[in-house]
Amino acid sequence: MFGITPFGWVHTAVSIAGLAAGIAALAASGRISRHSVRGKLFIWLTVGSCVSGLCIYRTGHFNEAHALSILTLLTLAAAVWLERAAAAPWMTYAHTALYSLALFFHFIPGFTETFTRVPDGAPLAAGPQDALVVGAIGIAFLGYLALVAFQFAMLRSGYRKTAAAAANS
């Protein structure tokens, strides 16, 4: 169905589970963190999605999807490192934005694969450059920017409260 191999279906299931874990982490605390179960699930399922994606050669050669997998792995590595270090407040902002960026990256192949495969036999989009795919990814990117703005405001208010409490004690 949809021209997907059994391995492709496993990759798809892992990817969807990673996306769901990331969204659940955001819903629970407003950001993704390796300290929460949802955050850990997001990180590890996203790593699984990337690694399995690197093994899929639908076109027979390395392509943009493989590059996105590598970029996502680098993004997650940087986010985890910054969260562990957390030596300065900017690091919290950086790892928060990077985890959210990794979540946004899920939408790129998600929209591309869905719109170029569904419905079976008569997909909504002719290819990855189709206006529907590009528009959906663009809207998701605007959502990412709005999310990061919200997260930064949330972090800033938390730092203000912490600084005020420290000053009053």
How many domains, in number, for the residues? 1
Strand content: under 5%
Low-confidence stretches: none
Order of helices and strands: HHHHH
Shape: globular
Structural class: mainly alpha
Question: Count of helical segments?
Answer: 5
**What's the total count of β strands?**
0
Biggest sheet character: none
Mean pLDDT across all amino acids = 93
N-to-C span: 64 Å
The radius of gyration over CA amounts to 18 Å
Q: What share of residues is helical? A: over 70%
Describe this structure in words.
This protein has 169 residues and is mainly alpha-helical. It has one domain (6-164). It has helices at residues 6-29, 37-54, 64-85, 89-115, 131-168. It is globular.
Give the SSE layout.
Layout: H1 6-29, H2 37-54, H3 64-85, H4 89-115, H5 131-168
Helix pairs in contact: 1-2, 1-4, 2-3, 3-4, 4-5
Organism: Tahibacter harae
Transmembrane segments: 6-29, 41-59, 65-83, 90-111, 131-153
Protein name: DUF2306 domain-containing protein
